[in-house]
Amino acid sequence: MASASDIRRRIKSVKNIQQITKAMKMVAAARLRRAQERAIASRPYTQKVREVLASVAANARDASHPLLAVREVRQIGYLVLSADKGLAGAYSSNLIKEVLPQVRGKDNARLVTVGRKARDYFKRRGYTIDGEYTGFSERPSYQDAAALAQFLADKFATGEYDEIYLSYTHFYSPINQQPTTIKLLPVAEIGKGEEMPQTEYIFEPSANEVLSLLLPRYLETVIYGALLQSAASELGSRMTAMGSATDNAQELISKLTLNYNKVRQATITREISEIVGGAEALK
Fold this sequence. Notes:
- It is a single chain.
- By secondary structure, the protein is an alpha/beta fold.
- The protein has one domain (22-241): Pyruvate Kinase, Chain: A, domain 1, CATH 3.40.1380.
- It is 60% helix and 13% strand.
- It has five helices and five strands.
- It has a five-stranded mixed β-sheet, with helices on both faces.
- β4 and β5 (176-185) form a beta hairpin.
- α1 (4-59) runs antiparallel to α5 (207-282) and α4 crosses α5.
- The longest helix has 76 residues, at 207-282.
- The chain is elongated, with a radius of gyration of 28 Å.
- The relative contact order is 0.19.
């Protein structure tokens, strides 16, 4: 059995860890409030952009644009939005589990990663990573989304990728996030198989010019919306994980304190017995 001094040291160590996890939970909760507002506010706009682009692309049959091109699929690109830091529960591992079945054993699958967790995981296992972006998983900006959109648009337009998918974590609540994958390009296949409203459009000055403006904005908007969803999901997962860690630390402290009291009581009882025994021996 451990001595009382050993148990005291362990209790102090656990209390120090509990202070850290409690502080991390509070920081994540403070950041989550803002991130959650942004994620929820962007959701209907992102969804509407996808619907409008799908409808416009379907009705602009005579228009030509590099992002509308449907080709034989030789190379597939995956944009994976993960976390830069750990201590967020199963957030990054759940996302990796979503991506793995789609890329495992495929020589034509290429990755563009956001966040260190996905980059490190796939790089260690020999997957092809064409681009890696770090440093903004918790606080993405529209400029970050625009840079990603430009990179992917160039890859698709030059024929390096024939299809592009986006894997991210959809935010529902601080304790409920769902990894998901959607198709980004080609735009002509967005909403395929879904009920889309049949609308006739009049393009001014021309369909090509309208699509040249809309398509890059579509990519930026959808990627930015996914970045916001992922940021809120990461902070929600971190807040939940640190809350659980704090509660577990408190439970461990209670058990250690009980054990410490038992050891101390046994020590006191033994010392009293020794004193009584010594007194009896002197009689």
